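Weekly structure sync, notes
Attendees: PL (lead), two postdocs, one rotation student
Agenda item 3: pending single-chain targets
PL asked that the sequence for the first pending target be pasted directly into the notes so everyone works from the same version. It is reproduced below exactly as submitted, 358 residues in total.
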Amino acid sequence: MNYNVLEIGKRNLTKLLLSEYFVLVLSVVYFFIIAAIVPTMTDIANIGNIFSNMWPLFTIAVGQTFVLLLGGIDLSQTSVLAVTSVIGAVFMTHSANPNVLGKSPLWGWFLTEAGGPFGAYPEILTAVLGIIIMLVVGIFIGTINGVFIAKLKMPPFMVTLISQTFFSALAILITKSQNVMGLPDAFTEIGFGQIAFIPYSFFIAVVLATGAHFLLSRTIRGRWIYSSGVNARAAKISGVPVDKTTIFVYAFSGFCAAIGAILYSGRLMAGRPTLGANMLMDIMGATIIGGTSLYGGKGKITWTLYGVLFYTIMATSLNQLKLDAFTINVVKGLIILAAGTMDIMRTRIQRFTTIVSR
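Predicted structure, written out during the meeting:
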């Protein structure tokens, strides 16, 4: 009888481990455990912060999910955050302080005390044009990455690392490491505005995630992405346009990072040249924890959502524990390592279960 109970328990544990809802269950369990240790976790303010902070991160992680499904990696998303934030801000600002931005190479001909090129327009028009500029820049950077990777066959790690370095430096050069203030209220409202306690960022993230999920699960391009991630050579022989798919995926990653920049810049009410400087671990961690494989071909948008939820709860709990920044980074690194190890274990268990069932 004891043997039967142990066997049933083992089967249930294996079933839970292999379930696509495993990270969601883990998030709930972790929240209640940490709430018992740190009661302030259950405060309305903290819960609100968790759900407000996860949506901008989720939008960026959606793009990273596409790249990982392809078997690649995009280290440049953090630089896209910075440079799109700055470029959008210099176009939209309605006033600029010469004591702050006077040393910028844009000062005097593009940026003046009266603001940027769109600064004199009506607020809504200014915000719309600024958002379009930010999205175009994000897509442009992602497309450049994709072209170098697909056409020149350069390693994704190297291409996106160079891109990260270049565009991060460009963001700092444009503003001489100063924040660009004076953004229109119609734009900043996107960052912290809400409807019945639900932030605007939630609706934007849901629309993006729904579109991404539909593309992956219901379109031929989604099948191309998965097949290219499993085996690019076999996919190419089968007629899949691997190069075009690669360019599309990296362009989409840049697009998602630009959306994240819009949400973060709106919340900060400024264009920040260092935006995203310390976010690479968060982006990669949330995506990997969700279950998207680093080897390509395995992952879902819903998994990324669960990973972002867990990562945001964990990050909030570490801050509530009053840990210093170095300790927090160590803990985050260990959790990401554990998630990668668990992904390998789940894959091996799944293969073993499949073989046994045959």
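Discussion points:
- The chain is about 75% helix and 0% strand.
- The chain has a mean pLDDT of 91.
Action: rotation student to compare against the earlier draft before next sync.
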